[in-house]
Amino acid sequence: MPFTITTLAERPGLLASKRAMPDTWPAFMAEDLVGWACFARIPTELPEHVLVATDDRDPDTVIAYAISAPFRLAAEGRGELPDLGWDQVLLWAFEDQRSGAEPDTVSALEIAVSRDRQGEGLSGVMLSALRENTRRLGIGGLVAPVRPTARHLDPTGSMEEYAFRTRPDGLPSDPWLRVHARMGGVIVKVAPAAMTITGTTAQWRAWTGLPFDTAGQVVVEGALTPVHCEPERGYAVYVEPNVWVRHTV
Fold it and tell me: Which domains, from first to last, does the chain contain?
């Protein structure tokens, strides 16, 4: 079905539709404190880095979006893609915005497709559009702290092994990593602490429907690794690993 991709800077009126778009993220993924502080600022402060797709039959309804943020990887004290992944590049992006540092890299942060448009290949289309947008903005590199889509089926194994696991044809076994690879993306390394979500055991019960009453590792649906639970202390912590992928633009 025909669709159109624009930036939110071009069509700021689509922000409400973008926010209302139904997605498939687990509830706990919205509880990252860095995300609370920074992520929601991107559509209003960096709208050139928010891409929205609309069906041409309904041009006022967002069916997919891609969010990214620019930062300066070559800044003093940086140089390497951070082990703190998604959280760290968000902090870098707004630190650089505040200081006026010239960005040399864009990080993809989220690509989402409406529930009723899954399976149409729109995630790959939005990734390609991010590359084109990075090129249009004159920024030299695109990276992504990728959240592998099938990793939650094997949450207790090594992410390092999983990230570099391949099929007989040499492509990654994970479907989302495979999309990146087919578009020329190169897996660089694992970001072992890309996102950290802390909460009380009561909060985790509300987010997941699980009892969180046993000490140790709790396997949670949609989580890429188990959540560490300390019921006697009343809290649980989830540290999510992602996979850094670098694209040429």
Answer: 3-248 (3.40.630.30)
